[in-house]
Design brief:
By secondary structure, the protein is α/β, with parallel strands linked by helices. It folds into 2 domains: 137 residues, ATPase, nucleotide binding domain (Nucleotidyltransferase, domain 5, 2-Layer Sandwich); 183 residues, ATPase, nucleotide binding domain (Nucleotidyltransferase, domain 5, 2-Layer Sandwich). Helix content is 40%, strand content 20%. The structure holds adenosine-5'-diphosphate, acetylphosphate and magnesium ion (MG).
Length: 392
């Protein structure tokens, strides 16, 4: 497909967007609306800060379109729009052309991803109104995990829940994981279908995925994006009896516990900061809570790497991506400490070297290649959008 795809990644409190030229597979322009609903909200279009105070997603998207109109480039060449949708449930395991019925289905799945799907839907609605004549394609975070076998996606709960209520592990960050695991195989110079990797997507949300021969076989997030690793504001794994315990001893309601585990836990809950840079700053200044939060974060990642090593049997690559995984050498060091018996370690000098490029950070000749691969969810969404439209 030639032409241009406008990709919208509408998150719970942000909108990321990029205009991609499909002939050259390059981004022509892009930006970010951050902290929607807060006083410090802002739109940064192609590196230039152009708007403050964005009340909600609808306003944010309108500001994005206005920024293109005012500062360029023109959106006249757009031939399709690609939308990131976090939860596709059991229904969507491939990208799909959006119509009213698909919109309704995404709405029905929303209870499974309450932080994400409603925002994704809002983006779709505003964009469909703004570009009524163009095809809109939904690309799902869950889709890549459709290959996880039953023994890894089934919860040991009453089978009626599994059969009738859609209770199972779905997994997320699939678009990112597909992109970086393919890039990792290319960097190793091996066919994608022959490479086993453990992908650590460490951003605001964080997940680990075991990829066997290019297919996801297990992942740390579950029915919702709350399970698994420690995240900025999400707890990751806790004892499933915790909500009932809090109800009993603290009289907390289920909705309050759910909000606390999603928005007031993780790094933020443990040390008062959810931005990884701030957590390190606190720890370096002697803050014990921040130090502990980092230890918990690192230990959790190592435990998942160990588990997925066992699941895969043989691992060719460990791949770090996401805002934290790409930028924090200290987190990568923490996350690989003590794993040398598994052949997993980072070379201090390689790991510390800053770069925006995909690169090897393990020592020469290491048994497992440790890589940093910057993710590009927007390019992957644009490519999947184009492929979906070509297949008709
Ligand atoms: N140089 C850095 N060192 C440590 N953490 C960083 C650095 N740069 C960005 N981050 C972290 O990346 C996280 C955001 O990751 P990102 O993948 O962009 O998030 P999102 O899930 O919103 O897409 C923030 O916690 C931020 O602190
Ligand atoms: C699914 C998920 O956690 O996404 P994000 O990291 O963008 O919050
Ligand atoms: Mg993200």
């Amino acid at each position: 497909m030639s032409g241009q795809v406008l990709v919208l990644n509408t998150g719970s409190s942000s909108i990321k967007y990029r205009l991609i030229d499909m002939a050259t597979r390059t981004g022509l322009a892009g930006g970010l609306v951050e902290r929607i609903g807060e006083d410090e909200s802002a739109l940064v279009h192609d590196g230039v800060r152009v708007e403050r105070r964005v009340a909600d997603h609808e306003e944010g998207l309108k500001a994005v379109l206005a920024a293109f109109a005012e500062h360029g480039p023109s959106l006249d060449g757009v031939t399709a729009l690609g939308h990131r949708v976090v939860h596709g449930g059991s229904r969507f395991v491939t990208p799909v052309l959006i119509d009213d019925a698909v919109e309704r289905a995404i709405e029905e799945i929303a209870p499974l991803a309450p932080l994400h799907n409603p925002a994704n839907l809002e983006g779709i609605r505003v964009a469909r109104r703004a570009f009524p004549g163009l095809p809109h394609v939904a690309v799902f975070d869950t889709a890549f995990h459709g290959t996880i076998p039953p023994h890894a996606h089934t919860y040991a709960v009453p089978r009626e829940w599994t059969r009738k209520l859609g209770v199972r592990r779905y997994g997320f960050h699939g678009t990112s994981t597909a992109y970086v695991s393919r890039r990792a195989a290319a960097l190793l110079g091996r066919p994608y279908g022959e490479v086993n990797s453990i992908v650590l997507h460490l951003g605001n949300g964080a997940s680990a995925t075991a990829v066997r021969g290019g297919r996801s076989v297990d992942t740390s997030m579950g029915i919702t994006p709350l399970a698994g690793l420690v995240m900025g504001t999400r707890s990751g794994d806790v004892d499933p009896a915790l909500p009932a315990y809090l109800a009993r001893v603290a009289g907390m309601g289920l909705a309050d516990v759910d909000t606390a585990l999603n928005k007031e836990s993780g790094l933020l809950g443990m040390c008062g900061a959810n931005d990884m840079r701030e957590v390190w700053r606190l720890a370096d200044a002697g803050d014990e809570d921040a130090r502990l939060a980092l230890d918990v974060y690192g230990y959790r990642v190592r435990a998942y790497v160990g588990a997925y090593y066992a699941a895969l049997g043989h691992v060719d690559a460990v791949v770090f991506t996401g805002g934290v995984g790409e930028n924090s050498a200290r987190v990568r060091a923490l996350a690989t400490t003590g794993l040398t018996r598994l052949g997993i370690e980072v070379d201090p000098a390689r790991n510390a070297a800053e770069s925006a490029e995909a690169r090897v950070v393990s020592p020469e000749g290491a048994e497992v290649t440790v890589l940093v691969v910057p993710t590009n969810e927007e390019l992957e969404i644009a490519e999947q959008t184009a492929a979906c439209l070509e297949e008709g």
